[in-house]
Amino acid sequence: MNYYELPRFLSEERHNDFLNMAESVKEWTPYQSTVSGNRMGMYYYQTGLKFANRNVALIKLEPHDVMDWHVDGKRNTALSYPLSGHYAPCSFEDETFSGVMLLNTQSRHAVFNNEHTRYSINISFQEPINEAIEIFNELSEYEFTTS
User: Fold this and answer.
1) Per DSSP, what are the bridge partners of residue 61?
2) In principle, which of 22, 36, 38, 102 could form an S-S bond with 119, CB 3.0–4.6 Å?
3) Distance CA 141, CA 12 (A)
4) pLDDT digit string (tens) for 24-54?
5) Distances in Å between the alpha carbon of 23 and those of 18, 58, 73, 131, 132?
6) Model confidence over 75-85: pLDDT tens digits?
7) Which residues, other chains included, contact 102 with Cβ-Cβ below 8 Å and sequence gap of 6+?
8) CB contact set of 120 (below 8 Å; sequence gap of 6+)
C-alpha cells in the first residue's frame, strides 16, 4: 500500500492558521537525504507542536522543485496534509495522490512541483503504515498541542 487517504480533519480556520504560519516562516531548513546525504528539493520547519505525540513540521517546495524518486531512511510512514492551493501530487510507481494521507515512506515516491509554492504539514511515524492507520483511527480528537 503506497498511501491511505485521510479525511480533511482541519477546520478552515486551523487550516488557514497553518498556511499563514508556513507563508510567514523566514528561515526554512534545507532537507538532506538521510540515506544518500544528498540535498533534496524540500525545506522544513519544526513548528514546536505535536499531533498524536509526534512532532509537527511544515514542508515547503519552491516552484518547479523536485523531490526525486526515493524511499525514506528514518521513518516508515508520514502524515501529509496539503495546505496550499494548486498542490502538486505525490507520485508513486503506478499512481499519484494529492490529498490528506498517511504515506508509506518505504514505497518509492517523488514530488515534481508545479509553478506554485507547495506547503504541507508533515508528521513522522516510525510505525509501518498499517499501524499508523490504527493510531490515527483510534484518535478521538485531532488536537495539536504545544510540546
Assistant:
1) 118
2) 22
3) 16
4) 999 999 987 766 767 778 999 999 999 999 9
5) 9, 10, 28, 32, 29
6) 999 999 999 99
7) 3, 4, 6, 77, 78, 79, 80, 125, 129, 132, 133, 136
8) 58, 59, 80, 81, 82, 83, 84, 87
Sign of CA dihedral 56, 71, 42, 114: negative
The β-bridge partners of 44 are: 29, 59
In the structure grid, which three cell numbers stand for residue 135, read together? 493510531
Between the CA atoms of 37, 43, 49 and 52, what dihedral angle is there, to the nearest 10 degrees?
-60
**Residue 12, SS3 per DSSP:** helix
